[in-house]
Fold this protein.
Amino acid sequence: MARITLVRGDITQQSVDAVVNAANSSLLGGGGVDGAIHRRGGPQILEECRALRASRYGRGLPTGQAVATTAGRLPARWVIHTVGPVYQASAADPSLLASCYAESLRVADDLGARTVAFPAISAGAYGWPLDGAARVAVEAVCGAVTAVEEVRFVLFDERAYEAFAAQLG
């Protein structure tokens, strides 16, 4: 099982093998974490996302799936893009949210990544209640069979940090 660490801060500043992007299905950037990763990482990430859209993901990346690109100018090797569920639209199905974490770790294993930084997927604009999002995230990571050595949850504010800390006991 991967060691889990918590950090309050900016995911775009994490020196890890892979940063997970809470992407939208278009893979073409957006707000929140997605926009920050694209802005800081630079045009190379968008270029690879466009190539993915032109090939395997013409209709966009499905919710709960994950795919990797370069990290551009980020202090990471890769960005793993995953699309979290919108809380209302998914009828609060935690399996879709858990899949984001499991699939991201699967992609990380395929890449050979040993350190992975996750945001609180779906806990921002997608409306997932923070305590529930933290529970699903921690359970999914703890239940994953992975060669990743460290999973770092990078949390945007004190409230998010406390929600994740409570799940880790």
Summary: Residues 94-111 form the longest helix (18 residues). Residues 3-168 form a domain with the Leucine Aminopeptidase, subunit E; domain 1 fold (CATH 3.40.220.10).
